[in-house]
Amino acid sequence: MATSIGIFIFDGAEELDFAGPWEVLAAWAMAHPDDDVSVFTVAPEEGPIRAAKGLQVIPDYSWAAAPPIDVLVYPGGRGTRGHLGSPDVAEWLRGVASRAGLVTSVCTGSLVLADVGLLDGRPATTHWQSLDLLRDLGDDIDVRADARFVDDGDVITAAGVSAGIDMALHLIARLHSPERAREVRRYIQYDPEPPV
Predict the structure, then answer these.
(1) Which pTM was predicted?
(2) Which of 22, 133, 155, 181 pairs with 189 at a CA distance of 20 to 30 A?
């Protein structure tokens, strides 16, 4: 069965929050075409977006033109603050969540999920500097401060930046197999050994 993965990009999105999962998931799709996975970016409108550190990216689709999304990746970054309380973002996100099998977030993307009620009564995580805000944005969110990512069935939240890569590998293991995730990890040579 085909799996359509939409990676949301927007002005102020943290580059590695979307580019990390993109690298993992697109490598999976390219290296294993028989797995029938497609990965694309989606933004509120057509035209380039400028990410948090200045990178300009042209989305594959606007919200209006995007194909159905089975798995959504919602990155974090300073741009998420403008999404909090936004009726347009809430309507789009709730609509995607009602149709998708899985909604994921990286870093402060979880704040938006919390803001629209997707994390109420659930375990979740986010960037360490936003743990208190995550707790305040929803109802009875079980904030997991030390987790790299939290899988709660149809919602997965990941902590900051590199945790999004770990979460994307977890997605492959969950959607296909741990063996496939290991193959992709080796293919992209993701083997973190921080020098500091």
Answers:
(1) 0.96
(2) 155
Cα–chain center distance at 174: 15
pLDDT in tens, 11-43: 999 999 999 999 999 999 999 999 999 999 999
Unique residue bearing structure tokens 């870093």 = 107
Are the beta carbons of 148 and 155 closer than 8 angstroms?
no
Q: Which of 72, 2, 69 is nearest to 37 (CA)?
A: 2
Q: Which of 76, 14, 35 is nearest to 181 (CA)?
A: 35
Residues for the chain: how many in total? Answer: 196
Question: Is 73 in contact with 21 (CB distance < 8 Å)?
Answer: yes
Domain edges within the chain? 11-28+71-81+100-187
Which residues on neighbouring strands pair with residue 72, listed in sequence order?
6, 103
Told to judge if 80 belongs to the known catalytic residues of this protein, a careful annotator would answer no
φ/ψ (deg, to 5) at 5: -110, 115
Res. 193 pLDDT band, cuts 50 70 90: confident
Pick the catalytic residue from 66, 107, 131, 156.
107
Class of domain 11-28+71-81+100-187: alpha beta
- In terms of phi and psi (left: phi > 0; alpha: psi -120 to 50; beta: otherwise), the region of 68 is beta
Helix (H) or strand (E) holding 108: none
Residue 182 CA to residue 6 CA, distance in Å, equals 22
Structure tokens at 23: 């690298």
